[in-house]
Amino acid sequence: MSLLHAESLIAGYGDTEILHGVSLRVQEGEITTIIGPNGAGKSTFLKALMGYLVPSSGRVHFDGEDITRLPAHLRVTRGIAFVPQLDNVFPSLSVEENLKMGGYTLDSAVLSVRVQTQFERFPRLAERRRQRVHTMSGGERQMLALARALMTDPRLLLLDEPTAALSPRIAAEVFEKIQEINTQGRTILIVEQNAELSLRASTTGIVLADGKNAFEGPADTILSDEKIREAYLGTAKS
Ligand code: ADP
Fold first, then answer.
1. Ligand 1 nearest-atom number relative to CA 38
2. What is the pTM of this model?
3. Which of 12, 23, 100, 159 is the most buried (most CB within 10 A)?
4. Across residues 116-129, what is the average pLDDT?
């Protein structure tokens, strides 16, 4: 059984329909990447999966439960966490305060264990625990956004462009961390412009175009198929 299953989602903003019946299955334990041109509806789809947008039609199941109309905060308690592309940390707060905000629903004993777990997982954040986040680099902030999402100990992590605006070296470091988090037993769904990097880390790839499913298959197939690469990655094989 898939951990997450979206069936024919139709959603958008006001009267503007952006998703025209998008479906996906995410298998437990895997990393799945959604790619596609700008404006294809990838972020909109993640928002619908997280409950920030209510679809006008279609269904979302998580771990066998129909969560289509479940509010976002209750999806968090079911085990889903979301890292948006922007505004994913509080710049005026310290690293430690950000982590505590990520676990504000936890009781204090669990909260301090989870903060400690993140510091072990992200040693650079431990070194900067009292630093204000606005003084930190883009890569450090992205690591903090991941750590903050992990405070609720999610089974499924939804990541919207985790390497946006990062240098290739830092983007690779972020992906190493994402893979490490995955091997620790978490299922991950990523929307990524950096398709090559993300597909290399993934089992399955999904292509969205114009608010519709355009292709779905093993990430290796997308990476090795010249036609798919030309159509959706905009690059010939390197
Ligand atoms: P992608 O992530 O694939 O680049 P998006 O889901 O961000 O695509 O955007 C899909 C379409 O939805 C775009 O035409 C965009 O302008 C529109 N859109 C995105 N967010 C909003 C919003 N908050 N209100 C209205 N339209 C939006």
1. 4
2. 0.95
3. 159
4. 96
Token pair 């479940």 is found at 70
Q: Tell how strand 204-209 and strand 31-35 pair up.
A: parallel
**Residue carrying structure tokens 């993934």:** 202
- Choose the residue to mutate in 16, 18, 85, 198 for probing ligand 1, maximizing ligand atoms within 8 Å of C-beta: 18
Sheet arrangement for strand 31-35: 80-83, 156-160, 187-191, 31-35, 204-209, 212-218
Q: For residues 152 and 211, what is the distance between their CA atoms, to the nearest angstrom?
A: 31
Q: Is the predicted pLDDT of residue 237 greater than 60, yes or no? A: no
Percent of the chain residues topping a pLDDT of 70: 98
Summary count for the chain: helices (H), strands (E) = 10, 10
Report the pocket of ligand 1 as residue ranges, CB < 6 Å: 13, 18, 36, 38-44
For residue range 193-222, list pLDDT tens digits in order. Answer: 899 999 999 999 999 999 999 999 999 999
Residue 107: name the closest of 155, 152, 154, 150 by CA: 152
Give the span between the Cα atoms of 22 and 136, in whole angstroms. 37
Separation of alpha carbons 133 and 97, rounded Å? 10
pLDDT number for residue 232: 77
